[in-house]
Task: inverse folding
């Protein structure tokens, strides 16, 4: 099977040195190395490149090459070609070192020069901060101290920063202020792996590459929007992090609000980083922060208790490793947000997300208004759902449009039928990690899929007041949903108050 580029881009990224901080961490071995390998296999990684891993663990180039060769065998998403991998491995280097020590960065600087000379590389360097958030500012400060952040017209310096960007509005602003002392906004690539998902990228193509949807993509035709990001998994081994975070910080502030802004934004003047991001931030700024009273009536939080799924008992959140046994952290949220602009005034956007829910699915449901005239009998009309468009983000990827059709037979009976498009049937589709497009985009300097600081700030301005009210009013009913359910009953009540129900569709097999 011949392989297609993942993004439709044809030119490989700029020749560069890729420095990964956190080189022995999980993200690096599960996602970054497999993604870089996939790009190489697709000829989207520049032919001339080098990787330098940085981590606290002792080691050298030879030991690192051995480790990543074992890791790639376990985590690659496609068969590993020996010749391709050998070339990748021999271009991979390593330095051990503590991020807090300036000596590490002096050694790094010397190593970059050595590697650039050995491989005849230009001065471009991509720094990937796959480290805990508390190190973000420190790494950038140290890079600056040894002049590694200095760009020239021939040599770019870019920094990819993982989430979370801040713990709240204040800390996000502090972090941004710390970073901007040393690097320009245009050098910062705040990554959101949801924006690397094929179906999320397709939202813009679907909306602005077709002429039939945009005219009805507004309050006149759309009655509500729902975004569900449901996970079956619990917090696994990340209890320590998650207990300090909760689902609003972990999923809503970044992934979900970003997806929402792609659904609601105005057409950008071009598909370039700033045009798209200008439109996205306007959506976030149109979501008016709620008053404490509105927060109480428009949000629901939950925490999972124990449950039984497929005959297996699952522990309550409070009994998960590294979680406080009296934890007040939410593992579920449902809320109603209003985008107050001309396109969306009075159209509710319902979002919900949680761990240990009944299914693993991310989907966006666009609910259209009922047909204006009841031509086929009032009774029948009421029983039938209005048209719905479902964007299946994962695990099935595709789009369903529910339409009404006449049932075959002599009588005039009307039924809802789905028009399904599944990505699985859409040509050749190479398995990917979701990081390929993002790494590639950084190598070609395309910022479209990365968060600009103004949108990070706007997202925190939406969620901060909610977190404040919740913090002030401790949840008294936790745990309030069973592992393996669809969340607390109050989430259903929340949406019913507006006359709707939550939908979750399974894409036709
Ligand atoms: C991460 C969150 O950003 O996204 C995790 O920190 C969550 O808690 C994950 O499980 C979900 O990503 P995906 O791609 O599996 O939907």
Result:
């Amino acid at each position: 099977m011949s392989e297609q580029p993942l993004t439709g881009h044809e030119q490989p990224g700029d020749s560069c040195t890729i420095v990964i901080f956190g080189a022995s961490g999980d993200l690096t071995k599960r996602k970054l190395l497999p993604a870089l390998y996939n790009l190489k296999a697709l000829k989207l990684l520049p032919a001339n490149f080098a990787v330098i891993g940085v981590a606290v663990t002792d080691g050298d180039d030879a030991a690192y090459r051995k480790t990543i060769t074992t890791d790639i065998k376990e985590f690659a998403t496609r068969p590993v070609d020996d010749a391709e991998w050998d070339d990748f491995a021999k271009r991979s280097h390593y330095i051990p070192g503590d991020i807090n020590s300036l000596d590490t960065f002096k050694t790094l600087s010397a190593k970059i020069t050595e590697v650039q000379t050995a491989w005849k590389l230009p001065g471009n360097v991509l720094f990937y901060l796959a480290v805990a958030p508390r190190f973000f500012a420190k790494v950038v400060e140290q890079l600056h101290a040894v002049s590694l952040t200095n760009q020239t017209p021939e040599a770019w310096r870019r920094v990819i920063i993982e989430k979370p960007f801040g713990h709240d509005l204040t800390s996000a602003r502090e972090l941004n202020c710390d970073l901007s002392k040393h690097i320009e906004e245009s050098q910062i690539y705040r990554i959101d792996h949801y924006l690397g998902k094929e179906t999320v990228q397709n939202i813009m193509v679907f909306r602005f590459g077709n002429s039939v949807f945009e005219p009805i993509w507004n309050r006149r035709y759309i009655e509500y929007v729902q975004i569900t990001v449901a996970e079956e998994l619990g917090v696994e081994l990340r209890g320590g992090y998650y207990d300090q975070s909760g689902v609003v910080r972990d999923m809503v502030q970044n992934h979900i609000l970003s997806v929402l802004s792609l659904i609601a934004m105005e057409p950008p003047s071009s598909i370039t980083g700033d045009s798209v991001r200008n439109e996205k931030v306007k959506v976030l700024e149109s979501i008016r922060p709620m008053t404490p009273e509105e927060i109480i009536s428009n949000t629901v939080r939950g925490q999972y208790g124990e449950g039984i799924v497929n005959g297996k008992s699952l522990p309550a959140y409070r009994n998960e490793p590294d979680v406080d046994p009296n934890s007040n952290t939410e593992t579920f949220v449902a809320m109603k947000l209003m985008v107050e602009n001309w396109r969306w005034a009075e159209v509710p956007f319902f979002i919900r997300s949680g761990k240990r829910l009944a299914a693993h699915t991310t989907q966006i449901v666009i609910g259209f208004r009922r047909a204006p005239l009841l031509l086929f009998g009032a009774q029948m009309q009421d029983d039938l759902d209005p048209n719905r468009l479902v964007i299946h983000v994962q695990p099935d990827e595709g789009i369903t449009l529910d339409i009404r059709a006449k049932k075959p037979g002599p009588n005039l009976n009307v039924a809802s039928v789905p028009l399904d498009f599944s990505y699985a049937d859409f040509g050749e589709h190479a398995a990917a990690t979701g990081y390929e497009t993002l790494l590639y985009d950084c190598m070609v300097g395309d910022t479209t899929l990365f968060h600009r600081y103004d949108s990070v700030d706007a997202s925190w301005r939406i969620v901060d007041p909610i977190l404040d009210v919740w913090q002030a009013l401790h949840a008294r009913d936790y745990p309030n949903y069973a592992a393996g359910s669809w969340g607390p009953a109050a989430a259903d009540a929340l949406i019913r108050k507006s006359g709707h129900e939550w939908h979750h569709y399974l894409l036709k097999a």
